[in-house]
What does this fold into?
Amino acid sequence: MYSENLLKIVIISAIVFIIAIAGLVISKANREDEMQTGGANSESNVDMNIFEASEYDYILMYGDTSLWDDEKNLGIDLDADGTSEEFIISRGVTGDVILKGIRRDASDGRIFETEFWTSGFSDLLPPSLKKGNGINDNCFVQISCCDIDEDEIKEILISAGDKQVANITAIYEYSSIGEMPFKYCGYIETSTVVRYIGGKTIRAYSAGVRDNKYYTYIYDDEKITNITGNN
Ligand SMILES: [Ca+2]
Ligand SMILES: [Ca+2]
It folds into this structure.
């Protein structure tokens, strides 16, 4: 009798142990999935974003590109003309980062695209954020759409950063005509997070957001201007 009870206890303990381990594995997998998933205004990713605003859309990826198992897509009508523009974060065959913006011509369906990474953005990054043609293991890349200069057309913000030492956020204007759908208008360099606070005003945090140390920039007339120096 005693050994039967002992056996039951051992079996039950083993089942509880297996369930606990399975739970841990599943929760870890979910976290890892979230790390690379991003998504429009997803609360679970707020702490990971390297560009933030109260109203915006974004896609985000993180770390070693060889571990990216899918691409991220964002369809958004930047100029409210009824045709969506499209953004993609994915990896190329050699593990390089692909950050793409696409305009589809509503009348004839022609496609015009900009690959931000190879058309100048990666050149802005310090070596600490890069690995080969890709990003370092602790680096995030983010494409965000937000109307910063309040002209009813959303700007595109391309960001790369590790949330500690370096954050490069470049601003591009959308053009609904011509061969170049996205025009480079400058960049902000800081340490952690870049945040749009409304009124054409951007804060670039040099430490954690809670430390409240930031430079203030105005984005207007396709130009970024530092207006206050360090607070
Ligand atoms: Ca459009
Ligand atoms: Ca705008």
